[in-house]
Design brief:
The complex is a heterodimer of chains A (117) and B (112).
Chain A (H helix, E strand, L loop, with lengths): L2 E3 L4 E5 L4 E3 L2 E3 L5 E7 L5 E7 L5 E3 L5 E5 L4 E6 L8 E8 L10 E3 L3 E6 L1
Chain B lengths: L3 E4 L2 E4 L5 E7 L5 E7 L5 E9 L2 E4 L6 E3 L9 E3 L8 E8 L7 E2 L3 E5 L1
Classes of the chains: A mainly beta (117), B mainly beta (112).
């Protein structure tokens, strides 16, 4: 079964600075990888996804993520953070069409991002 | 507008009571999911359904029940057997392949 680790529970960043959120996964085959964002009291919004192909994927709101198979990582980055990026971010891994875990995602515990003026 | 609607937004349960959370989607998705979210624990899968009239237990199904009588609806019942029901509950749906799950706005359940 797949698993996900987000090492940073909480990150504080200044507005305009760059942001990188770490995500490490464990899975025996090529995973499907996702980053979601959650504002307080709201559902999750998909930022970006990786299924195959180019290992650098672009998402909404100026975010990008890079899949590194050798490091089992899928880190999320943004060059310049805006105050509206303050939220909780979740990395998730899916096993694709594996029969015993079809459609199921495993989520990390999340990283809370605080943006200071 | 297409999307996933969860209701109510807030729900209170008395001890010994069963409560039902509603989830409706008009995305024509085959698969639907229920997650429980607790602070610092991410999302944990309660139940999921790949197709109408079929559903599977997730990682924390004890104390919960579901039904899938219609493609667009996947209600979750929190039974009195669930001793710690206070949490934020999220419903999601996806097309049958590729795992992109879309989420509702959630229901916050508290115990009186």
């Amino acid at each position: 079964a797949q698993s996900v680790t987000q090492p940073d529970i909480h990150i504080t960043v200044s507005e305009g600075a760059s942001l990188e959120l770490r995500c490490n996964y464990s899975y025996g085959a090529t995973p499907y990888l996702f980053w979601y964002v959650q504002s307080p009291g709201q559902g999750l919004q998909l930022l970006l996804k990786y299924f195959s192909g180019d290992t650098l994927v672009q998402g909404i709101k100026g975010f990008e993520a890079e899949f590194k198979r050798s490091q089992s990582s899928f880190n999320l980055r943004k060059p310049s953070v805006h105050w509206s990026d303050a939220a909780e971010y979740f990395c998730a891994v899916g096993a694709g069409l594996a029969a015993d875990s079809w459609g199921k995602l495993q989520f990390g515990a999340g990283t809370q991002v605080v943006v200071t003026p | 507008d297409g999307g996933i609607t969860q209701s109510p937004k807030y729900l209170f349960r008395k001890e010994g009571q069963n409560v039902t959370l509603s989830c409706e989607q008009n995305l024509n998705h085959d698969a639907m999911y229920w997650y429980r979210q607790d602070p610092g624990q991410g999302l944990r899968l309660i139940y999921y359904s790949q197709i109408v009239n079929d559903f599977q237990k997730g990682d924390i199904a004890e104390g919960y029940s579901v039904s899938r009588e219609k493609k667009e609806s996947f209600p979750l019942t929190v039974t009195s057997a669930q001793k710690n029901p206070t949490a934020f509950y999220l419903c999601a749906s996806s097309i049958s392949t590729k795992n992109i799950q879309y989420f509702g706005a959630g229901t916050r359940l508290s115990v009186l």
